[in-house]
Amino acid sequence: MKSCRRGFLAGIPGLLAWGTACQREVSSNPERSLLATTGLVADLVRKIAGPWWEVQSLMGPGIDPHTFEPSYGALRRLTSAKMVFFHGLHLEGKMAEVLHRLEEREPSRYHAVTSQIPASRILGESLESPDPHVWMDAVLWSECLGPITKALCEADPENARDYLIRHAETLDSMVRLDDQIRRLVLSIPPQKRILVTAHDAFAYFGRAYGFRVEGVQGISTATEATLNRLEEVADILVENKIGAVFLESSVNPRTLTKIREIAKRLDHNSHVAAGGTLYSDSLGDPGSGAETHKGMMLANVQTLVEALR
Ligand SMILES: [Zn+2]
User: Fold this and answer.
1) pLDDT in tens, 88-124
2) Is residue 157 predicted with pLDDT exceeding 80?
3) CA distance linking residue 78 with residue 94, whole number of Å
4) What is the pLDDT of residue 17?
5) Residue 92 C-alpha to ligand 1 middle, in angstroms?
6) CATH number given to 188-308
């Protein structure tokens, strides 16, 4: 096992050789097995893949993709799956380089689902440092269907017609989800549409559905918030009489507790409550109702409506 790990550290060629030499993916039929890095990507791939492929996710519910370090087993799965779909836009912080090098080497096997989103639609400081949280805008997320459908049609032309039908149906259901979110948001008064969360996962949500978003930690959870930033955000809450800050399922709640304390110090009458937990970078557990992208988006909007209306 140790020699396998050294092979990976020595570079991609070692990783590929090791993937073949070592144990294969544990799947009922490795030839019909697809691997997605995150639950959100797996959810999207399943919609197109239908009954023809088994789709697994490398990261389970509640796992933070920015800081996820692939284990020995995870690397083995990445190199032995028939095809791998990953998010891209540096979401998979610790794996981003490996994934892009694998994609360069085997473009028919490794696919970044965000690769076809026009640069003009991407938020973030720059194209070198993009905001990866595109799933927060249902219509923008549907742009990620294209690379998946294309890859499956090429890998399995016999079922291409079925993939194209599924593509059209999924696109349609994502437009309907977008409509549904807009209608739910209408019950929050416009001046109350301010969303304070630990990290900046909701900028696309804010742009699409009309919220001012104040993330405290920046785009990645790997950075820590400064005291200055905490005070700034507490000020915004007090000034706008916003009564709730929101926790995130995959982020430590410590930062938001600090903001609530500062808001209380600034204004003794301020009662900033924890407005509930939002799903940001990970789907919910099976049975939570948020185990799909649609379920997750609706659960978030419901939480916002209850706390801010
Ligand atoms: Zn994030």
Assistant:
1) 999 998 899 899 999 999 999 999 999 999 999 999 9
2) yes
3) 14
4) 38
5) 10
6) 3.40.50.1980
Structure tokens at 302: 């419901």
**60-97 pLDDT tens trace:** 998 899 999 999 999 999 999 999 999 999 999 889 98
CA angle in degrees (0–180, nearest 5) for 109-129-298: 75
Q: How much distance in Å is there from the Cα of 115 to the middle of ligand 1?
A: 18
pLDDT of res. 250: 66
Distance 31 CA to ligand 1 centre (A): 32
Taking the domains of the chain in order of start, what are their residue ranges? Answer: 2-176, 188-308
CA 53–ligand 1 middle distance (angstroms): 28
What span, in angstroms and rounded, lies between the C-alpha atoms of 212 and 237?
Answer: 12
Q: What is the pTM of this model?
A: 0.85
Do 2-176 and 188-308 share a fold? yes
Four-residue CA torsion sign, 154, 155, 157, 159: negative
- Spatial distance between the Cα atoms of 70 and 93, rounded to a whole number of angstroms: 11
Token pair 């991407």: residue = 122
Report how far apart the first and last C-alpha atoms of the chain are (Å, whole number).
55
Q: Amino acid identity of 157?
A: P
CA of 30 to the centre of ligand 1 (A): 31
CA of residue 131 to ligand 1 center, whole Å: 8
Query: How crowded is residue 181: how many other Cβ atoms within 10 Å of its Cβ?
Result: 20
Q: How many CA atoms lie within 13 A of 25 on its CB side?
A: 24
Architecture of the domain spanning 2-176: 3-Layer(aba) Sandwich (3.40)
